[in-house]
Write a structure and sequence with these properties.
Pathway: Aromatic compound metabolism; beta-ketoadipate pathway; 5-oxo-4,5-dihydro-2-furylacetate from catechol: step 3/3. By secondary structure, the chain is an alpha+beta fold. The chain is about 30% helix and about 35% strand.
Length: about 90
């Protein structure tokens, strides 16, 4: 099942620049793992914001949630998920 996932990350200002760099590196590493597993299909940045739009694929919403929750920055993400259905013209 495919999902359109939008999220915006708002890291606390209390984090040091070193902590932010560590979180970004860990996030990148986890995203690579999710791509390799086939769950994360495609990502786009939203210009001017710390926001992302992505195409994800998972067996169900629970599996998707587990993948999203495994992201190191998840505690600071505002996430919106839209399940997608195949359009009749795509068959």
């Amino acid at each position: 099942m495919e999902f359109l996932v939008r999220f915006e990350t708002r890291l606390p200002e209390s984090l040091s620049s070193e902590q932010v760099a560590e979180l970004k590196a860990a996030e990148r590493e986890r995203a690579v793992q999710l791509r390799q597993s086939g769950i994360l299909k495609k990502l786009w940045r939203v210009p001017g914001r710390r926001a992302t739009v992505g195409l994800w694929e998972a067996d169900d919403a629970t599996v998707l949630h587990e993948a999203l929750a495994s992201l190191p920055q998840f505690p600071w993400m505002d996430v919106e998920v839209e399940p997608l259905a195949t359009h009749p013209q795509e068959k």
